[in-house]
Amino acid sequence: MKFVNASLYLSVVLAISACGEQVSVESHLENAKSYLNENKVNESIIELKNAIRADTKNAEARFLLGQTYLSLGDGLAAVKELERAQALKFPDNKVLPLLARAYILTDSDSDVIDLSIVAKELAAEERSQYLAYQTLAALRSEQPELAERSVELAQSIAQQSLYSMLALAYFQLSENKYDEVKTLISRILTINPKQVDALMLQGQVSMVTEEYQLAVDSFKQFMVLQPRFAMVQLLLANALLKAGHDEEAEQHADAILATVNNQPFANYIKAMVRFQAQDYAKASEHAEVALSANFNQFNLKLVAGASAFYLKNWQQSYHHLSAIIKYMPNDHQARRMLAVTQLELGLIDEISATIGDFDGTDEVNAQFLSSLSYKLLELGATTEAKKLLTQGEQTRSGNAAHNARQGILKLMMNDLSGIENLQAAVKLNPELVEAELAIAFSALQRGDIPKAKAIADKWKKQYPDKASSFNLLASIAIKEEKYDEAEQALKKSLSLEQDNLFALIEQLRIARMQKNIPVSKNRADYLIAVAPTNNKVLRQYFGVYQNEMALEKLTKAYELEKTDINKAILLSEAMVSLGQFKQAESLLVSLEDTEKLPKRYWQILLLTYKKQQKIEKIQPTLERWLKENPYHIEAVVLLTDSYASQRHYDRALTVIKRGLENHNDNLVLQLIQMQLLLNSKQISPAKSLYKVLEKKDIYDALKQGLLGRILLLEENYVQALPKLTVLYQTYPSSQNAIYLAGAHLGNDDNAKAVQVLEHYLTVEPNNNRIETMLAGLYLKNDSNKAIAVYDDVVKKQPKNVVAHNNLAWLYLEQDNINKALEHAKKAFELAPHIANIVDTYGKVLLGSGDKRAALTYASKASEIAKGKDVDIQLNYVEALIANNRINEAKDLLSKANASTDEQSKKKLELQAQL
C-alpha cells in the first residue's frame, strides 16, 4: 500500500514539474522576443539559452538564437543553432536563407551550394534571398556558370527584389563592372540603408575603385550593425590605412592583436603604419610575423625589405627585396635599396642586373649611380664601377654637377677622359670650383705644370680673397721644388683663412722635405694643437717625431674615436714603425669583426705576422682577406703566390680564376695565371690563354718569352731557343737564364748552356741557384771549375746539401780525402735520411781507409733506397768486399742489374775482385 502511494506521489510531482518546464520555456521565448523588439540583444540571448537549457529540442528557440547571432555577425554560432533548428524541422522558408548567409560568413561556400535542392521549395522572396548567397558562393568557389544561372533565376523570380539586385551586383563585380555594381548598391541601400550585405559589398567595391573614404564609412556602418564579424575590423583598418587615417587604423589593428597576437592582416596593418611613422624596428617585427603566416602581400614584402634596409639588416633586406624586385618599376627606390644591400653583402655581380634599366638622364638616378660607382671603386670592383659610370653617361651633358662627378670618378679610375667631363662642368658653371680644382691637381699629378699654372693664375685674379687660390699656387711651387714661393703662397692662404689645414700641412711637408727638423717640430706641434684628431695631421705629427710621445698622441685620438678604422690603421702603422709588432697585431685583431676592412688593414696585419715570424698565420689571413673582399687584387696575388711557393698549383689557379671572375680581363692576373699554367706544365690551357694574351698590348719580348716557355714544355727546343733568347736579353733575370740554358741543354748544346749561366753571373755574381746549376754542368768536363763554384756556393749557403755532397765526390776524385770527408760529413749532418747523401759519406769513408764505418753507411744507404738504386748497391758491394764479407758481396752483386755502361763496367771490376 505504501508502495502504491509513493508511486502516485512521484507521478504527480513529475507532471507538475513538466508543466512548470513548459511554462518556463514559453516564458523564456516570450521574454526573448520582447527583448529583441527592444533591441536588447544580450538579454534576449540569455533568455533563449535558458529556453534551450530547459528544452534542448525546441526548434523555435534554436532558430531565434541563430537569427540573433547572425544579426551580430557571429557566423559560427549562427551556423550551429540554425543547423539544429533545421534538423528539428523548423520551417525551411525561415531557416534556409539565414543558414545560407551564416555559411557565407564562415566561408562555407560548398555548404551554401548544397542547400540548393531544398531551396527549390522556398517561396519567391526567400528563394531570391538564398540565390543571392548561392551566386556569391559560386563565384568564390570559381563556378561562374552556376553563378550566372543563379542570377538569372533570381531575376526571373523577382527582378526588382532587394536580393535579386544583390545577386546581380555580385555577378557584375566578378566582371569588373564597377559602375553597374555601384548603381545596384545605391538602389538596395535606398530601399534598406542597413542592408549589411550591400554595405559590405559597397566597402569592397570602394577599395577596388580607390574610394577609400567611402569604404571606411561602409565598413564602419557594417561594424556597428554586425559587431561580432571579426573580419570587418580588419577590412576597416585596411581602408583607414589607405585613406590615410594611420592612427585610427593602428587602433583597430591593436584591438585585434590584443586578442590574437599573430593575426597576419593585423600585423600587416601595424607594419604599414609603423613604417610610415619611420619606426622601422616595429615595422620589421610586425612584417616578419605576418610573412611567417604566409601572408605574402607584395606591399608587406616591400615594407619588410625596406625596414630591414634602414635597420642595416642586410641579409633580411636582401631576402625580401630580391623576391619582389622584378615587379618593381625601373626607377623605384627599392631598386636603390637592393643595390646598396648587394653592395654591403658583397654580391657585386648582381648590382648591374638590379639597376640595369635605370634612367641615366634622371638626376636622382645619376647621383645614385655616381655614389655607387665610388663605393665599388673603394672595394676594388673597378669593372663594375666602370659599368655604372658608363650608365651614368646617359645624363644630359647640360648638367654641370653630374659632369663634375663623372670626371672625378673617371680620374680615380685612371681614365683621363674625365678631364673632358670636368672641363664641360666648368664651362656650364664657372663657379663650380671643385671641378676646376680637380682639373688643376690632375694636371699637377701628370706633370702638366703649365696647365695647372694657367688655372692657378686665373684663380688668383678671379678669387683673390680665396685661400684655395694660393693653396693651388703653393702645390705647384712644391712640385717645382720652389719652396720659398710655396711658403709665400701658404702664408697668404693662412692670412685669408686662418689655420686652414691644407696650408698648415703643406707648410709642414715643406719643412720635412728640406729636412729642417726644428721647424718641422714647431709646425707639427702647432698642427696637433689646432687639429688633434685629424688623421692627416696625426700622420704628419708622427712622421716628424716617430717616438713614444707621438704614439701616445695617436693612441689618445684613437681612444676618442674607436669606430674610425683609419685611426686604428694609422696607430697600428706607428706601432710597427716602432717595432711594437705584438701590440699592433692585438689592435688589428680586435677589429677583425669590422665590416669592409680596407686593404691597408690586411697589409699591416700580414706585416706584423711576418715581422714576428708567425708564418703559420699568413696564409689563413690571406684566405680570410680574399673571402671578405674578393675584389682586392692584392689579396688574390698574395694568396696565389703563397700557394705557388708551396707548389700547390691547383689551389693557386683556383684563386686566380676567382680573381678573374671579379676582374674580368685583368692583364696582371692573366699573366700570373699563365705563369702558374707553365710552372705546373699544363700545356693545353697555357696555349689557349696565350691566344688571348698575344692580342694584348704587352711587350713583344714578353709574348715571345711566353711562347718560348710553351715550346720548351713541348720539348720543341729549336723553336723555343730564339724566343727565350729575346726574353733573356730583354729581361735578364735568373729564371729567364735558367729557361734559356734549359733549352740549350735540351738541344744537346751544353757549352751554350754554360755560356748563358756564366753570363748571368756577371749580372748577379751571388746568385746561388745559377751557381749550383752551372757547377752541375761543370761536373762532366771541368772538375776544378765545378769545385770553385761549389766552394763559393757553400760559403754563401752553408746548408746547401747538394753543393756539399758534390764537393765531396769531386774532392774524392782528386784524392783530397780530408776535404772530401769535411763536405761528406757536413752533407750527412744536414740530410741523414737521403740515400745518395749517406752513400757519398760511405764512399768517402772507404776512400779514407775507414772500412768498418764505410760499411755501416753503405748498408744504411742501401736500406734507405730499399735496394732499388743500382749505384748505391754497387758501392755497398764494394764496402762488403773491403770488409771481407765475400758471400754477401757475391749475393748482392748477382742481384744488381746494371742499366748503364758505367754500371756494367763497375760490376765487372767488382766481379774480378771476387
The gist of it:
This protein has about 900 residues and is an all-alpha fold.
Number of helices, where a helix is a run of at least 4 consecutive DSSP H or I residues = 54
* Percentage of β-strand residues: under 5%
Low-confidence stretches: 1-23
The quaternary state of the protein chains shown equals single chain
The CATH architecture name of one domain reads Alpha Horseshoe
Q: Categorize the overall geometry.
A: elongated
Keywords:
single chain, 914 residues, mainly alpha, Serine Threonine Protein Phosphatase 5, Tetratricopeptide repeat, 54 helices, disordered N terminus, TPR_rpt
How would you describe the overall organization of this protein?
The chain has 54 helices and no strands. It has 914 residues and is mostly helical. Among the domains are: 452-531, Serine Threonine Protein Phosphatase 5, Tetratricopeptide repeat (Alpha Horseshoe), CATH 1.25.40; 551-610, no CATH class; 614-694, Tetratricopeptide repeat domain (Serine Threonine Protein Phosphatase 5, Tetratricopeptide repeat), CATH 1.25.40; 799-914, Serine Threonine Protein Phosphatase 5, Tetratricopeptide repeat (Alpha Horseshoe). It is elongated, with a radius of gyration of 48 Å. The model is unreliable at 1-23 (pLDDT under 50).
